[in-house]
Fold this protein.
Amino acid sequence: MRKRFDDELRHLNDLVLEMASLNESAIKKAISLLDEKNKNIAEDVIHDEERTDQYEKTIQNQCLKIFVEQQPAASDLRRVSSALKMITDLERIGDNARDIAEICMGLPDDCDTTSLPLIKEMAEATVNLLNRSIDSFVNLDLELAKKIDDEDDVVDNYFLMIRDQLIDIIKADFDPGAAIDFIMIAKYLERISDHGVNIADWVIFTVEGSRT
């Protein structure tokens, strides 16, 4: 019976990893649109978001299956319950990636996207945070989960630097409309980072029985 339960948990972990990997790919593709508007890539991000929605339903069904068939208790129950909560954050990350792609595709053709390299650095930091947050869940790594808040502070600091830089370049005759688009992209990245923190908090709940 325990072996079957462990197999079900591994399958659940695999599904969560696949969903998170899809999100990572979508974020990277969305940010790449800053370098070159590509309708096919933008459509890929939209398709990824739709697949994320499908993963959410599949994982919900897997969790319910475990609840009904295995009737987990204690830490096992918390682990499955946490996965059920986490996929809400993962689904919203997919939405945020799609939002970023749509903003990038709507930027003016003559917009100088190279004037804000911090956006790409922020995106990289955000993706790394998400990866480490998911790793902490798969491995039930409490120490790693508790470090995610510090990584979120780094992402938040990027947002502040980008905001200040935008103020400066608007003064230098940068398109104010494009500046608003850039700050929205940074805001969506910040939200993705916050979702990563939520995931880490659910890991802490799984291991310790309470969230931070």
